[in-house]
Amino acid sequence: MLADLKCYVALFFQHPDSSVAQKSPIITVKLSERIHLIFSVIFLLCFRASSGDMGSENLLSQSNKSVNLRLSNVSIYTAEVLEIEADDPKLHVLFVPGNPGVITFYKDFVQSLYEHLGGNASISAIGSAAQTKKNYDHGRLFSLDEQVEHKMDFIRQELQNTEVPIVLVGHSIGAYVALEMLKRSSEKVIYYIGLYPFLALIRPSVTQSIIGRVAASNIASTALSYIIASLGILPSKALRFLVSNSLGRSWSATAVEAACTHLSQYHVMRNVLFMTMTEFKQLTKTPDWAFMRENQSKIAFLFGVDDHWGPQELYEEHSPDDCLGSLIFKPHLVLTDLQASP
Q1: What is the pTM of this model?
Q2: At what angle do helices 206-216 and 266-282 cross, to 10 degrees?
Q3: Would 106 be classed as within a structural domain?
Q4: CB of 302 within 8 A of CB of 195?
Q5: Per-residue model confidence as pLDDT tens digits over 208-237
Q6: What Rg, from alpha-carbon coordinates, does the chain have?
Q7: Strand, coil or helix: what is 61?
Q8: Is 12 among the domain residues?
Q9: How far, in Å, CA of 320 to CA of 329, rounded?
Q10: What is the pLDDT of residues 149-173, one digit of tens each?
Q11: Is the terminal CB of the chain with fewer CB neighbours within 10 Å at N or C?
């Protein structure tokens, strides 16, 4: 599988310096290309997870369907869901975002993933509870564990009658959430993919230390949420200009719009920081490597070399000397210039 992935990516990108790929165990990927590598990874993993039900010709077929955004009332709590339904799906991909869990950040991702899978997989991407454009849950704060349970309720409520296998895909802390879901899920969930997973705290990380201190302080979290929410009073064009020329310099227009419409809401930022606080408490525990080893046949991770949340060191600590190494797409592939959220 790793050899197939390496060959596929080499063909996909037409790497100009084949000698580098032959001599070095690391293939560097340009910033503009890294998202395509993610699609390539999921493309191949979903193909394997389907147990041969999807032929390569079908995977490469084209579809012109668009992503839909809707509200889902899961366990009486409201979440935003991006979805795109295949006419004749061979599997269902359920995507869990990082934090912020504003799902519209991932609209382009979901659309491109659907197209990469040739319209043969239905895709649902469920946002974090209470991180919605409107304050549907009246300021309620959701912990990491509650977000896990919220996603499990989504499977029970909306995917219970799905006739095709389910593949879980999680990004950053969403990889932790999806991994917990895998532990509790039925046989219907056949595969799990963690993209730049945030599974444990990195003690030497200055970035994590600063964010952790802010999130742990109720006063600091409240004040920061009010400050960011106050930007919402700016005219929409001014706010887009501000975001595009600060945090969102490399973002798509869709991501910039998501930041302007959601992160400028007090209830969203307050939930982002509250969830972060509970993440930092929960992730002081050692990841459940035993479970991952026992289920390695249906688990895979994609790490990045300079990711503050799922760094290369986490990979090196647990592979390749033990069987966990088979779960991780390294040393064949390492993303550089990675920018991930908690």
Answers
A1: 0.80
A2: 120
A3: yes
A4: yes
A5: 889 999 999 999 999 999 999 999 999 999
A6: 20
A7: coil
A8: yes
A9: 11
A10: 999 999 999 998 888 999 999 999 9
A11: N
